[in-house]
Amino acid sequence: MKQFVVIGCGRFGASVATSLYSLGYDVLAIDKDEERIQEISDYVTHAVQTDAVDENALRTLGIRNFDVAVVSIASEMQASIMATLITKELGVKTVIAKAQNDLHGKVLTKIGADRVVYPEREMGIRVAHNLVSTNILDYIELAPDYSIVEISTIKEWEGKTLKELKLPTKYGINVMAIKHGKDINITPYGDDIIRENNILIVIGNNEDLRKLESIK
Hints:
By secondary structure, the protein is an alpha/beta fold. The protein is built from 9 helices and 11 strands. It folds into 2 domains: 3-117, Rossmann fold; 122-212, 2-Layer Sandwich (Alpha-Beta Plaits). 35% of the residues lie in helices and 27% in strands. A 6-stranded parallel sheet has the order 3-2-1-4-5-6, with helices on both faces. A 5-stranded antiparallel sheet has the order 7-8-11-9-10. Strand 1 (3-7), helix 1 (11-22) and strand 2 form a beta-alpha-beta unit.
């Protein structure tokens, strides 16, 4: 089972740490703020108050034995960069770092972050798409040009099979799964019929996905 260390226990870091712990993983939470450590201590495997830019302290905690490090101290750019650099140098296999902006993200990538996340920006994109369209329920950007979208059934699609709808040809999208209530079909076939109140999980180019937002 993977072991995780989360460095920085603000709202994002605390959410990641407690969610991983609730899923059954070992989680070490680190923050220099004693109050944050006290608040999270009952919801992770271990919680330690220390400075994330103290290489000796991180080495003593056995950081190198963890599979994944999540560096979530983006508000302090220098500390974020140093913590990312140190965790990579100490041998953590995968380092995910939260960034404030594109420049911060580029630096984190240059020094070895395996993945850079922009939680506020990503949530802003998801909320914006939800606000401008009654069809779009959720929106996850995979890359600058491609996304995964949850879309409620469009009226004209109801009662038709995926083969009849020809969504890849007509809209440039591919259906990954179909949800109906608590049930989910993760291997939809051409003969599957789209029903009222179905939710489709689709992937496609952002330009093609935007066309779905205007369909009533």
